[in-house]
Amino acid sequence: MSDHVSGGSGPSSPGDAGWYDLFSRGARDWLRHNEKVREAVRRHLPQIVAGADVLSGGASTVRVPVRMLEHYRFRLRNSNEQQGVGQGPAKPGDRIGRPQQDGEYQRGQGGNEDGSIQYTLEFRIDDIVDWLWEEMQLPNLEAKQGRAKEDDWTREGWDRRGARSRLDKRRSLKESIKRRGVQSAAGVQPPPFTDDDLRFRQLARREQPAMQAVVMLLLDVSGSMGERERQISKTFFFWAIQGLRRQYRHLDLVFVAHTSEAWEFQEDEFFRVTGTGGTIASSGLRKVREIIDARFSPSQYNIYVFYASDGENFPSDQPQAQAALEDLIDDCNYLGFLEVAPLAGSVPDSEVGKLFLHLADQRDNVGAYRVSGSEDVWDAVRHFFASDA
Amino acid sequence: MTEDWRTQISQIESLAKSLGLKYHPVELEVVPDSFMTEIAIYGLPVRMPHWSFGVRYIYQLIQHRMGLSRLFEVVFPGNPGRAYLAKSNSVAENVLVTAHVLGHADFSANNILFRQSQAQVGERIVEQAAAHARQIGMAIEEHGLERVETVLDAALALEQHIDVNRPLHRERYPEVLPEKAPPPEGDEFVRRYAALGPDTERPVATGPAKRAPIPPHPERDLLWFIAHYAPEMEPWERDIFLAVREESFYFYPVFACQIMNEGWASYWHARLLREADFLPHSMYVDAVKCHSDVVRPPASGDHVALTTNPYHLGFSIWEKIIEQHGLAYARKIMSEDDDFAFIRNHLTQELATELQLFRYKGPANGTLVVQDHDISALHDALLAPKYGFGAPTITVSRMHVDGRLELVHDHVTDGRGLDPERSRRVLEYIARVWRRPVTVVTVNSDNSPMEITVTPDTLGYRI
User: How many angstroms separate the CA atoms of B72 and B30, rounded?
Assistant: First the structure.
């Protein structure tokens, strides 16, 4: 009668690994869950990263708190009353404190209902930028050829003499092996190295297309630019910089704020600056010009200017602003204007916006776009980067 | 060595048979604890992949690490049945577990719900579920993970929405309304009517037969209905729905007989152990200790628990029945009832008092008050989470000519309306496979009617 339970079958020795040791389905499905969380987070990255303080360098990752996803089912709405069956020495009318959510309580059908476990996902900013560029199908910027060139030392060939720091050990060893091969074939006991084996790297000066760039961020900090407008501008600046970083090895950042005057700032102060008074766009543009002349020669640098403002320029300043703008065009790879407006619509209609639009008709390297919330920032980035291609 | 217990198996089996247990052969397999965890989460040793299982997996791991749960065995009914035993079980525990497994095997071979389910689903659920998993794996290769996941999101969300009172394999509804049978000849009314004269002859129905509405009656089996009536579902998507549905038919008796089944298995492991004079004394003592851990009430001493332990509850009821009415009567109940009948008929006021069961009530997150010892209210409270496979009562009320699907929630039966946010998400899952607008009708918290509709074209990203 004993054969009814086939105790002899199955893995017979404890060391025997069953097929189930090979992989964990639970872990596989958990990884898939995490992938879905990442996908979901990716879709909200622009908003998430808008809050992070990561403009130049600094943190290279963004940490995002996430909840576990819930697989939804039809459920009754939460009742404002709870009832159930308990066990223990309780008499009718006894009062019991709040129930603790112990294991038994949660174990019911689909015990994942209480999505209370929070954890943190960390994203590398480089990855984020890659995803976004992929998702938005943004073109990669091309380093401008022809204008900005730089001389740089490059390795070129080898020599038997040279500075010790440029000794090419691998190459020298190869030479030594060749020599010893020949010598031992001739019956000589060869020394391990001779001076003739040594090879030194040669450097030569070559002209290369410039891989240096400077991004000049010009921000209107007049009274009409409130906290919200600045946050939008900051988000935009961040992503514009990230886009350029993909292309340039060296990226200098210049921060200029203006009201009716203009000043250069360090990044950490830049977004905290508040000014009073009105907007005179030409002051900002002229300050940019000054900085270019002083530090960033157009023959050495690819120059990008992004200007964020509500665009409410004093009418009397329009001619000067136009002149200052035209003065910049030839020396810049790109000039972009972000109009931060309370109303939706993608075509700027402020004073400054009109100046940029007018120029954009004639020149490829000028663009203007209007945003009314941080959700529009991506459209703006796309607009600028697509037109600059 | 953990294999020592196997030498006891044949003696335990002979003992079980001499005490009247009747079961299909059971294959026992010792598996790592991590695998036990997975069986508990997926409900089956090999089951289709879905991210929601991953979430449960993590919860289980966390609970496990906190020492909240330990699994000794999982049994799958069938012919042969299959039992998985945790590698970490001690020899004594495995002796106990083997006896427990025989109790389950006896239960599932004789209980009407299990027998009906196995007659329809088949007797090799473990292999069938593995075949479903393979089928879905192939679908993933052919159609991509995203598309398969979209179907599984919907099908698994509706897992509990089947109709076990209808067969697993159902025909589509008749296309036309059945003709009304003419009244019988000798009918009083017919005679009087005929006596009225020749110009009142019974009108003869002409023209095309009337098309039956779909569904002709409120349909509870949402998985079946969607699989058969979705306007644009592809065959492989339908197959996934039917695979999930088949597994649900398998799961139903396990769910609906949990208290009886666990109680029965616990009764038998206790009794077999007691009568197994061939066991070494130390093994017996260890096994009994394990038994009392398994069937212990959730609270002891002065403590009060807000839960019950189904093992303890079922075990106590069976002991009482066998003590008062004998084993033959108990076997009859075991073969004919489910938890609803079992609790209502056999959890008496006297037993409930003895077990110190009480009903509590109170505001959510507030102080709870212990209620009167009213046995039928206690029955209701114990059984409330078990109705309708533990899910809200939702039926298909209408499929419109343009393909719109209308679901109705029976808020009167359930006592309150649906959680609107979750319902909307579930409708989103459904709309992606139904591919037409889907509506559910329920009530607000103030009992005013509420309708939630999801249209497939407004669905953006899948989350």
Answer: 10
Inter-chain CB pairs, A–B, below 8 Å: 295
Q: Is the pTM of this model over 0.80?
A: no
Mean local confidence (pLDDT), B402-411: 96
B388 touches chain A (CB under 8 A): no
* Structural tokens at position A319: 């001619």
Helices (H) and strands (E) in chain B, counts: 19, 9
Query: Contact B219/B225 with Cβ under 8 angstroms?
Result: yes
Does one domain contain both A299 and A161?
no
Residue A238 tokens, joined: 């961040």
Q: What are B192's two structure tokens?
A: 């009087």
- Partners of residue B153 in chain A, C-beta under 8 Å: 71
Any idea which residue has 């004639």 for tokens?
A362
Q: What is residue B347's predicted lDDT score, i.e. its pLDDT?
A: 96
| A265 and A164 both lie in a single domain | no
Question: Do B382 and B375 meet the contact criterion of CB atoms below 8 Å apart?
Answer: no
ipTM value greater than 0.90: no
B417 domain residue, yes or no:
yes
Instruction: Considering only the beta carbons, identify the residue of A14, A33, A80 that sits closest to B51.
Output: A33
More confident residue, A341 or B23: B23
Q: Are B81 and B25 in contact (CB under 8 A)?
A: yes
**Number of domains within chain B:** 2
Residue at A124: amino acid letter: R
Q: Does residue B395 lie in a domain region?
A: yes
Q: Which amino acid is located at B414 in the chain?
A: D
Exposure class string for A22-59: b at 16+ Cβ within 10 A, else e = eebbbeebbebbbebbbeebbeebbebbbebebbbeee
Query: A66 is written with which tokens?
Result: 């996430």
In the DSSP assignment, the letter for residue B462 is -
Q: Which residues of chain A have pLDDT under 70?
A: 1-23, 45-59, 98-117, 135-152, 207-211, 249, 387-389
Contacting residues of A for B35, CB less than 8 Å apart: 18, 20-21
The 10 Å Cβ neighbour count of residue B197 is 8
Q: How many domains does one find in chain A?
A: 3
Task: Give A44's contacts in chain B (Cβ within 8 Å).
Answer: none
Q: Do B360 and A73 touch (CB under 8 A)?
A: no
**Mutation choice for B interface testing from A29, A30, A105, A116 by most B CBs within 10 A:** A29
**Distance from the A50 Cα atom to the nearest Cα atom in chain B, whole angstroms:** 21
CA–CA distance, A387 with A78 (Å, rounded to integer): 52
- For chain A, how many helices (H) and strands (E)? 11, 12
Would B409 be classed as within a structural domain? yes
Domain extent at residue A252: 210-388
C-alpha dist (Å) from residue B310 to B25, B69, B93: 26, 15, 20
Residue A9 within any structural domain of the chain: no
Amino acid at B113: L
**What number of other Cβ atoms are within 10 A of residue A74's Cβ?**
24
Q: Which domain holds residue B452?
A: 389-458
Judged by DSSP in three states, B99 sits in: helix
pLDDT at B205: 58
Q: Let me know: does A271 contact A313? Beta carbons within 8 Å.
A: no
C-beta separation of A283 from A221 below 8 A = no
B interface test, pick of A32, A67, A74, A375 with most B CB neighbours within 10 Å: A74
